[in-house]
Amino acid sequence: MYFKRYNFPGQQVAVYRVNRRLTNERRRRRGGGAREEVVVDDPGRFTVIFSPQQGDFEDRSQDQLPEADMVDFPVFSAVVLTLLCLSSSLEMPYSSYASRRSWENISKDPGDCPSGIRPDQDFTSSNFSMDIRMPGVTPAESDNYLCISQPVPSGRDSYIVDFIPHANMDTVHHMLLFGCRKPSSISSYWDCGGAVGACEDQSSIMYAWGRNAPSTKLPRDVGFLVGKNSKMPYLVLQIHYGDIKAFRDHHRDCSGITLTMTYKPQPFIAGIYLLLSYNTVIPPGNKVTNADVACDYTSFPIYPFAFRTHTHHLGKVVTGYRVRNGEWTLIGRQSPQLPQAFYPTNKDVNVQYGDTVAARCMFTGENMTTATSIGSTSNDEMCNFYIMYYMDRKHAIPFMTCMNPGPKQLFQHIPAEANIPIPVSPDMMHAGHMMHSAHVSDFHLEQVSWPLTSLQLGQVSGLAYNTHSYLVVFHRGDHRWGANSFNLQERYQERFLGPIQQSTILVVDPDVGAVMKASGRNMFYLPHGITTDKDNNYWLTDVALHQVFKVSGNGRDRILVALGEAFVPGSDSGHFCKPTDVAVDSKTGNVFVSDGYCNARILKFSPEGKYLNEWGAGASDSGRRIPFQIPHSLAFIPDRQELCVADRENGRIQCFIAETGEFVKEIKKEEFGGKVFAITYSPGGDGLLYAVNGVSPHHSAPVRGFVMNYYSTGILDTFQPEKKEFQMPHDIVESIDGVYVGDLDSRQIYKFTLEKSHRSVKKGGIDVQQLDELQVIVKAEVRPQPNRTAVVDEKAAAAVQPHAPEEEEQKEREASKEQTALPVLITVLLLVPLLLIVSTGLFICWRRNDQSELKSEPSSVGGIFGKIRGKAVGGLNLGNFFVSHRGYTRQGFDQLSTEGSDQERNNDSSDSEYEEFSTLPPRSSS
What are the ranges of the NHL repeats (predicted)? Predict the structure, then answer.
């Protein structure tokens, strides 16, 4: 065994190589690797990497690192071999182990830039996060392009499912993430704006960011494939720093992105189709100059689900289309002066062989004195339309480009909307990924049919959304808050009922509403608020216990932190009185508690639960300081480090500086009708604040939801159920695919999205009911065009691809019909002997009996078949069978009452069935 030591700017890396002969069983468990590599990036710390390849391990150091002297470290050799043996015996997955070690190497100094791998809290999970951040750089000049590379961990394939940007447009003009086989430099960072570039070979764009765009989360079952086997073992982040004046204070920049990744194979692979113009010139004084791009599409079907526009300051609108048989179908339309995020496509649209993909960028040169060309500086212009799509994994193409200006005759038929500028106000600049339509008036949330499966719930007291894109529900099972639940001293009077026996915490698939995981049995008495932290732990409040809990989110119900004293109300730093909600600062980990029904304060704790400080209500613009009257819900504003409070009975929202508790602003609207029950903030930091009000005896305002601009406090939209009315909306949460409202009184969860779905819930941009049909299309047996990364001429493609995908799909359907015909034929052949036997029996009976007996025969025969039908239909109930054999139980509980101002009123009760989720139900395949 030996290792090499390499010196880098500011770091040392030692690469070990270990030769070991593995048994066949171990090879199977590790993917067939015969050699292992150990990377040491810090003295005393090292990461074990198993090679998935057969035969000799590739010495990547010769390709990627400068040569250095060979040094022998027998002590390290012994330690490494011991660790390898231990890992073999424990069968520890590499992903968890390597990620944990890398994360421990990150400096605790807040001045340092985070970088490396962060594992999921559950080290057996296949999920992890990857930080790619600039290592504290200061650009040398304006329009400086800097790059940093990071290898994808291990030789295994990984899938990127989420992009979280860490940048500000005041400093960073835009960011691009590339996947490549080999970066252009081995330096910690390098200037990649010239000939050096980002990648040494061909690169694939995976993500783009600009103008304070929010994060981008991919649809479920979709991911960008990266890793050694995907031919993209490296990720390179390119950052364009615009104006050097942003660095007049000589600060060092740590901008970058966090990638949420998984080793779990995804059924669909994401890719980027980039349409760009490179030869457009914008004359000075011209009111309108168009840049057009169009290419014929000659590959396997793609399914766009998001789009992004990019120009510089002269761009007014960028629009993309699919053209099929002369018909133009909109893919996306947006002003490039808005946050340059990936916005959802306007409708379900696919692109198939023979279609044309086209885009137009509309510029104006009205205020210019010189011509403007396409170029790389901020004084130049760009015309880019990005399409983020997914394909079946068998035919996945990670990146395609189109730079053809297209025929002028084609663009004579482009829809008129492509020539209409989108006006942008300062308020709209902050309205993020939800506002993807052309005009503010088009921004409207509408209810969709959800859940598609039955959710048997108690009073829905709290909602949250975790980093895995699942909805988390906190409900009260068969307990209710009645007039006799508390005495005058606020002590809970129904302890004799015991804790709630049902699972009070449900992790729900947001697509169809199926319960994926359930926990929280025999723990709570009267649940109220819930939130999740960055590690997907739950922070929960119980008004009966007067406590706040941090509970592990892996379903094991492990209490990590408990604040307050059980069943003992109080007003000091160690007690609560009916606490309502919790908010968590993802940056510092600090915890904020709204307390509550008896107290009128906000308390701040450290991540470990140490009391830090507290404060009450702030003074409004009129200077009057009105105390909180039930601070009921909290929303943390990460991009401003502020905490907003829904002061329920005062009908207002107050916001404070999270660090000090200093009052910032108050939002109070007549439309609230005197009550604000719950609030939530868009996690992308785009400035959208959501709220729900409640019934007030002093106001006639309707009960509904509100969408507001945090900066201007203006109401952008209101929403409510279509057929029913909100009875008592108790909590609200915003997600990547819509807004959810939990109604306490009706025990229901309502889902609202921007675009009304006429066929229920969508999955990855496609209706669930159409998913089977889609998969037939996606899995068409068409000959792939290997390594195709750009759109090519249709005639050239025809030579490589003899049959269009549509023809192959037709063949597959015919083959499917043939496969279906065989079981039908077998069934008919089996039924023929049975019919002969029955006919023979009837004939014998007819011969032996007289006419009166014959008249009763059909009834007898009917009775036979009736018994057969009865046995088939009612004799075996699979639902009851699994309930009785899988440990499921059904338990009825009373119709639950509604929560009032401080107590809850009683209603007439009625029985309803509730399926207790004691095991994880199987997830439906995609």
Answer: 568-608, 627-659
